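Margin note: ligand = S-(P-nitrobenzyl)glutathione.
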Amino acid sequence: MKPIVTAFERSPDRGRGQARDMRVRWALEEAGQPYEVRLLSFKAMKEPAHRALQPFGQIPTYEEGNLALFESGAIVLHIAERHVGLLPDDTNARARAIAWMFAALNTLEPPIVDREVARLVEHGETWYRKRLPILEDRIHGRLGELSRRLGNAEWLDGAFSAGDLLMVTVLRRLNGSGMLVEYPNLAAFVARGEARPAFKRAFDAQLAVFNSASNHR
Ligand code: GTB
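Resulting structure:
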């Protein structure tokens, strides 16, 4: 039975693959696991049927037989634990790869999301122009630290893992901001992730949803 992932019926990112279903699609593609997608309107996401799966009325969710999961990081970890290719076999290397998954979601993503939220909902506030550089400095702090740790390595800790997958999806949120330009090794890291065939299949699948919604408007 194929797992079912939920995604936006009309993604606000216009097919740029920034919503968090993208990381789940990518993990499933890396694992060679076919999946189905249930597309949801914003209204449907807030209805009891979806909240039973995702208490906060968000995407993505993941259903597989009698298992229902929410939180993209937990879903990617679940996929990585059950298929080869996303976590090393060695116990210590596996623990380190999981640490990178948490670092992507807990250390890098929050300041990046803070900036996105400010740009979206706070741009009319009198203090916005003062706050934005503060938020960007915070991101630069993390990017500098990550860049120094990555150095000339291809991936964060040995072979490609779910830690790299999540980190690439998080850093991609800065596409178009110009903020990665100062960190050529991070920009190359993101490009390496995006060049993976599994990434491309996942990206094309979410883009097809956007294109099909645009054709039916
Ligand atoms: N911690 C949860 C997880 O990792 O699964 C967060 C899930 C989440 O934020 N989901 C968002 C959502 O459902 C979509 S991904 N939002 C609707 C709501 O809360 O009502 C976040 C997102 C949305 C849009 C863009 N974009 O347009 O670029 C990028 C990212």
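The chain has a mean pLDDT of 97.
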